[in-house]
Amino acid sequence: MRTILRGTEAATLELSGEIDAAVPAPFTPTGEASLLLFAMRDLALDGIRWPAFDYHEALWRIGVRLDGVPAWFAVRCDIDSPVVRAIGRRLVRYPTRGARFAWDASRWRVDTDDGKLAVEVADRSADADAAPPRRTFVPSGERVFEIPWREVPAPTCAVARVAIADDALSTTSFGAPVRWSTTARALAGRVHMCGIATPLRG
Prior knowledge:
CATH topology: Acetoacetate decarboxylase-like
Low-confidence stretches: none
CATH superfamily: Acetoacetate decarboxylase-like
Shape: globular
CATH class: Mainly Beta
Radius of gyration: 16 Å
Number of strands: 15
Structural class: mainly beta
Number of domains: 1
Order of helices and strands: EEEEHEEEEEEEEHEEE
Largest sheet: 15 strands, mixed
Number of helices: 2
Helix content: under 10%
Strand content: over 45%
């Protein structure tokens, strides 16, 4: 994969849950729901330090299998920066949506025209295993694209207890309700790299 964009996730919360959602062929749903919340710092073209963008993102993903291998099918991408939102829509093919974010060590909040999500965070444990990256796919019109995705693991990864305080946004994002886990991964410092999305062949 040729990296096009590179940035560092200053803070990340990875929520997981169970969902009954349909996905298009050739994918098979696994019953997983995932919400990746992060505060990105210095996103820029790889090897070029300017211009660089700070922004917040909520990536809504359904767990799938393709050829028997676990992958993600991303159904919505909330971004607060209009510039990054346009880049994500054009180059990465994300189904983007405008959003407003608020976060600190104890909470995350996402506010869109389709609803709101509020997550309370508490009691981080010291050591946790980071989830390995998976292939990531997105719908775009009548086609499906793959997002080239790589990561440098975060130096800090913990398990946190979470409580969903307001969840009007999950069903409108996924098209089905989610049974969220009461724990999530909390990370800091993961390096995030992606490239131009390419059509899925077959």
